[in-house]
Every structure is written in C-alpha cells, then in structure tokens.
Amino acid sequence: MNARLATILLLGFVVGCSKSGGSGGGSNSSGDVISSNQQPTPLDIQKRTYVYLVNRDKSTVSRCVMDPSNGGLNQCITTGNGLNDPIGISVNNDFAYIANNKKWSTGGTISVCQIDKTDATLNNCTEDNPDKTTFNNVAGVTNYNNYLYVTNYNGAITKCALSSNGSYNSCKVVNTGVKSIGIAIANKLAYVTNYDNNIVNKCIINDADGSIGTCSANKFSFLKPNGIYFSNNIVYVASEGDSKVYKCNVTPDGEFDNCSATGADNYFSPRSINLINGFAYITSISSGKVTICKVKSSDNNLNDCNQFRDESFGNFQEGSASYVIATSSTVKAAYAYVSANSLNKIFYCNVNLATNALSGCKEAGSGFNSPSALLINGNNLYIGNKNNGNITKCLIGADYNLSGCNVLSTNAGYSDSHDIKIVGKYLYLTSYFNNKIGKCVFNDVDGSISGCVTTGDDIVHPDSIEFKGSKAYISMGDGRHGASVCNVDPTTGNISGCVRSTAFGSGWSPTLIDIINITNGPSYIYIPNEDKYLSRCVIAANGDLSDCKDSEAGISNPYQVKYFNGKLYVMSRNLGTLSSCEVNIQTGTLSNCVRSLQDTPPAGNGSKLHGFAVSVFPNK
Questions:
Q1: What is the pTM of this model?
Q2: InterPro entries, per this entry (predicted)?
Q3: How far is CA 536 from CA 505, 557, 561, 568, in A?
Q4: Measuring CA to CA, how many Å separate 219 from each of 189, 254, 339?
C-alpha cells in the first residue's frame, strides 16, 4: 500500500493549453499560475472541452470538440436519443438536461441524458419524470446549486431538485407572470428574458432552498430578448428582434447599466449565447449557423466574430452547453476529506477534476473526538480534536479509507485544535480556548511530532493560521474578532511580534483562512466572516494586509476556505455545504460559485461539518 501511495501530489492551478478569459476566471496569461501552501506544485492536467448545440428541427444535439486556441468547433457528431422538439440544454456534472418543447405543447418534458466520460456523447436519454410534472410551453433550462430551473412560456418557472444519480424530483411551479424564454442565475437572482415585453425580469432566489421569490422588471429594454449569459458583473443578452447581442454592466442591486451592442452586426435571429473559455457561441434560429466570437479580456466586448456550420447542424438551432473531460497520465484520483464534528466521523468524497464537484461521499473512519481541522501530508491525514489539544494521525489506504489511527500527544495546555499546518520542520496548531499557538517538531520520515511548545504573543482565541515567507497570519474569534500579522523566525520557527491588522474590519468573526499566490501578480488572503461574508485582502510587499473587502462570493455563513485545482472552496459548516468559486486573478474577487458537495451534507442532515482537506493521488 505504501508503495502505491508513496507520495501525494498537492495540486495547484491546472495548466491547460488555453488562456482563461471572459467566462469568469479573470484574464490569465499563459505564465500566470495560482498556488497555495497546501497545493504548491502545478500539475499538468489535460482538459478537453466539448460544446453541445441543440438542433430543434432535427430533434438532435450536435456534440463538437472545441479548439482552445481559436474557439473553433470540429469533430461534430449528432448525439442523444428520443428527443422531441428540443429547445434548451443544461449540463450538471455528468448529466445533460434537455427541454423538449413539443411544438409549444402544454405537455413538455425534460430528457435526462448520461454523458459518456470518454467522448462526451449523450446516452440513455429518458424523459425522467418521477413526479409526473408537465412543463407548459417549456423554453429554457439551467441549473444552480443542485436545482433545475425550467422556464414556461405560459408565465411560470418550474424548480426541481437534482439527485446525484441525475434524476430530478420535488418539482414546484412558481407563477411569475413572465412569459420567459432564456434563464440565467447570478448573485442569488434568476434573470429571465421577457420576450413579449422586450425586457429582462429578475427574481429573487432563496439560497437555502432554491425557491423563487418576488420578480421585478429590469430598466433596460431589448427587442425580443432570447438568450442570456452572465460573466462576473457583465451580462450578455441575445436580442432576436434586431439580431444583436447586447453587453451590459450589472450594478450591485442587479440592474443593467451601460448596455450596448457588441460583436457582429448581424447574428441572424440569435437564440442563445454561451461563453466558454474566452469565446462566445451564439446560436441562430434562421441561419443554421453558430457565430463564434472572441471575448476581449480588457473590456469584455465580443470581436473577431465568424459564422460556422457543420453538416450535423439543423437549420433551427436553440440552446447550447459545454462539458469538460479532464485526464492526466500522472493522477490516479482526487479525493476530499470532510470532518463531521457532531458525529465524530470523517468522510471522503471523489473530486471531479473537470468541475471540482464532490460526489460518492463515504465514511472513511469513525470514533474520533469531535474532529475539527484536517490536513493531508504524504500518506497521512492529520485530524485536530475539538475536545482536547491532541492530534490524530491516520494512514490513507489504497482504497482511501483511514486506518492505523494514532493519537499524537501535544501538550496538556492545548485544547480545541481548530487548525493544523505543517511548515518546514514544524507542525503548528491553533488552541482556540487556551489562547495559544502550538509548535511541534515534525518528523517527515514517520510523520510523528515531538517537543510541542507554545509560541506567538497577544493571541486570543486563534481560529486559523497560515504562512507566507517570514510572516504568519492568525485569525482570532471570540474576544478579539480580528486578524494578526506575526513574524516567523526562519531558524527556530518561533512566532513573535504579532500585530493586529487595521485593514481587516473590527468586530468581524474570522475563521479558517487560506492564501493564494499568483506568479506575475499579487497574493491574496481569504478570511471567512462566519456571520457576514468572505473577505479578501491583498498581502502587501512588507507582509501587511491591505485593501480588505467583500470577495463577492455571495455565500452564506462561510467558515473555511481552501484553494484547489484552480478554484477556491468555501465551506459553510452549519449549512453542511461546500461551494467552489472561480478566482479573478486581477482583483482576487470570486464569481460563479456553485455547490460542489453533491451529498449535502455527506453525514446526513443536521450534522455539523468542520474540517476540509483535498489532494490528488498519483499513478504508480
């Protein structure tokens, strides 16, 4: 077993063949790499992107391979079976959801298709309808946080829950009074294109249960709006009436501002728009061609637009979607470990390297003492125990279960270990209720610790600790509610000279933090405020914190953050959820945060999640 898992590679930013662009990840150059202390080494993962285009008049879907260098489509084939006048498509994990309009019937359906993980073809498509739900003049479909949203042109939106096996259930129809076509969800709002009234309506979404609330009209008018797509604080609207695509800024209250036509002069009655890896794909209901435009990173305008047609296309194209297959010759699998504090258990979940979604969560070990912090190092998982200051070390087996768990004695003066970090030859732990930082000598041969002592000064209820260069960053909770910057002695590992940051807001409730470093760019520290929002601060050249502000993640009750595979994971422990967000490397803000934990929570409803660690395991 040890021979197979001799080393666990820690994953940083996935280096692909293309540049990131207008799809929300910021404007990366080919030399920009994101890393963190726990994922310092970039790993070469090959990602292949497939684009789906719905052919309504043929009742088929075209599946094409995207060329990352120019956005071109090739190797297009027809795929899917049993479709009936399809009009929209949405992809969630390994399933495609296709809306069957059935000639504007009151008995529309949703086909659920399994996506082949080797070639992205659609298989075993069924009109899965466990609740016997019918869709009245179904038009658009999207998904968000494991809910499926379907627009009904009769003036309603249907919301269904998605299961990990791809099925949907518990569908509820909300009468909005909006005869909507396209739908997109951003910033806890559902935006639907109001075709008849030439506007876009926005509806409030309850993030806790996905329910739809009050709808109101946006101020800007379009001419027969159809498709809609959000990228950070930019929205694109496909306007059928004048064959234009409009780009608008989105204000903090969700209104559209500074709207103007962008890209081609004529999109030939555009139906949908989708941004994929820095390119825009606009389908047409009159030309039988798809228009492909480059998204300009400096101003998000569309340019260099060209039309493309393949023999697999119909003459009447509707929705579009994409699917990514990630492969690697060096990675066997990626797994995340989650501690369920209230159950004294650890769970492990498979991580999809293409989407960062977690699935198939299983119990990895039990009998712990209120497990909290988790840290993977080598073949070992280190677990902080909430009820005492000791740390449990477990061996990660070839089946990813935990075995050989031993309690590592630290110091009788420690308790409630909220965080664990290994830096060089030392292991550090935060002892929350004892107001201490523990420093132990770490043996990198057998993973043991010894000689634990207290370090640091002016420490009050330390929640988390992170390191960058000669500085340590400590978040503190009850009684202090702040973040301190400390000096680290490179020889002894001792922490001293801690000064509370004035850039981080007084009275906030900081919890478990992480730092990301960007080559050719800044370093950001992310500090969750569990009763407010997730903060983002810039680490200045002298190590101090500056420009602290809301990261714009929009996630309720954030407790822990962890960078992995090009995205920042955000855990909300009391909600039992885990989301992954795209990082804009120019600003450090977050966007396109989606629910990554599919079995939410893996321990069952009501359990309290606490720690989170993730890593990849190499092929041998």
A1: 0.88
A2: WD40/YVTN_repeat-like_dom_sf
A3: 11, 15, 11, 12
A4: 15, 10, 46
